[in-house]
Amino acid sequence: MDQTAQQIVAHIDTTRERLGSNLDELERKVEAVTDWREHFQARPFTLLGMAFAGGVVVAATLRSRPSRPSNDFARPAPAFQSPTASESQKHQALDTLHNIKGALIGVALERFKNYVAAFIPGFEEQFRRTQVGGPSFRASRDSAPPAESPAHAR
Q1: Spatial separation of the C-alpha atoms in residues 104 and 46, rounded to whole Å
Q2: Which residue in 64, 71, 108, 130 could disulfide with 53, CB within 3.0 to 4.6 Å?
Q3: Mind spelling out the 3-state secondary structure of the chain?
Q4: According to the model, what pLDDT value does residue 150 have?
């Protein structure tokens, strides 16, 4: 009986040591994953692109509309107006800028998704399953019974 208790104590001690070393290893991994300096040194252009896209998104959401002046004499001349530029050219330029902004945000989000997928096992598969319009999304949507409109419910 005494030998069995000693074996249990020895087993607990070895398990405790393994858990301690596993926790140390986990701490090192967490520090490596959260150290932005290492990530910047490894992939500077990706992080710069993400920062740029984030700045564009923040600027677009925080952009305030100019207030309307009380009279026409106080209104400043628009900065983006030239006598030769037609309205269609202005719209084309704004559409181009909008497309560039969308492309940059798309690239940044794709890079971010790949970055997260590299550190979280199973993320890529789960992401594909939860994408709007993905196969499992369509299957769950198609199997759901159609909702009745309030006019037909009466």
Answers
A1: 11
A2: 108
A3: CHHHHHHHHHHHHHHHHHHHHHHHHHHHHHHHHHCHHHHHHHCHHHHHHHHHHHHHHHHHHHCCCCCCCCCHHHCCCCCCCCCCCCHHHHHHHHHHHHHHHHHHHHHHHHHHHHHHHHHCCCHHHHHHHHCCCCHHHHHHHHHCCCCCCHHHHC
A4: 47
Question: Would you tell me how many other CB atoms lie within 10 Å of the CB of residue 104?
Answer: 16
Residue 45 tokens read as 């252009």
Whether residue 74 contacts residue 33, with contact meaning beta carbons closer than 8 Å, is answered with no
Q: What angle do CA 45, 47, 49 make, to 5 degrees?
A: 65
Per run of 10 residues, the mean pLDDT along the chain (length 154 residues) is 84 90 88 82 85 86 62 54 68 86 85 82 83 56 50 45
69 phi/psi in degrees, rounded to 5: -70, 160
Count of beta carbons in the 10 Å neighbourhood of residue 4: 8
Report angle CA 70, 90, 77 to the nearest 5 degrees. 30
What residue ranges do the domains of the chain occupy? 1-34, 43-62+88-121
Is the whole model's pTM more than 0.90, yes or no? no
- For position 119, what pLDDT does the model report? 79
